[in-house]
Design brief:
mainly alpha; 2 strands; two-stranded antiparallel sheet; Serine Threonine Protein Phosphatase 5, Tetratricopeptide repeat; 8 helices; disordered C terminus
Length: 193
């Protein structure tokens, strides 16, 4: 059996286990459950089987997004939201997919949800970097979809955070400069993708 075929077989088997071939995923009844723990900065309290299923859906969505299989990743992320409705990264990633695909109304919707979710206690372990990035990407999405007024209001809020973003999150600041460059021309032509 070739390595490529074996790898594909493992992926298909893993996918079938994760999605349960259209049925609920059966986990062992003696699965250890902690009262509180964190996964990628997202705090889970009394994790149950549903939360574990949600993490599996999110993990597959992350992998598929990395592979640029966006339509399939969307399905996994949507399933993950059913089990982990407050996990901000899921909504951020949905925003990213829709932004990359040029569906700016959905991108701005999911960036807004992500921004709100990043403020919840469950997401306190996450870096503010994604919070700021979701604000900036929402403003860009709003502008690109033609909602200039709302984009300008959001940009005024972001302006107040500019110094903190620049000093603590230089990669996010690059996106902020893109926002100003492409949307409002503040930095001229110094940022290009």
């Amino acid at each position: 059996m070739s390595g490529k075929f074996r790898k594909c077989s493992v992926i298909v088997a893993l996918s079938l286990v994760i999605i349960g071939v259209g049925t609920a995923i059966a986990l062992p009844p003696n699965l250890p459950v902690k009262s509180e723990f964190q996964v990628n900065g997202f705090r889970l309290i009394s994790a149950d089987k549903n939360q574990i299923i949600g993490l599996r859906f999110k993990g597959m969505g992350d992998w598929l997004m990395h592979k640029k299989a966006y339509s399939t990743a969307i399905k996994y992320y949507e399933n993950a939201t059913q089990y982990l409705p407050n996990e901000a990264d899921i909504y951020f990633n949905l925003g990213e997919i829709y932004f990359r695909e040029g569906v700016y109304n959905l991108a701005s919707k999911y960036y807004k949800i992500a921004t709100d979710k990043y403020l919840l206690p469950e997401n306190a372990g996450k870096s503010k970097e994604r919070y700021y990035l979701s604000l900036i990407m929402r403003a860009i999405s709003l502008k690109l979809k033609g909602d200039t007024m709302e984009a300008e209001q959001l940009t005024m809020e972001i302006d107040k955070l500019e110094a903190e973003i620049q000093s603590k999150y230089p990669q996010v600041f690059t996106k902020l400069k893109l926002l100003y460059n492409e949307v409002w021309g503040k930095y001229g032509k110094e940022v290009k993708f």
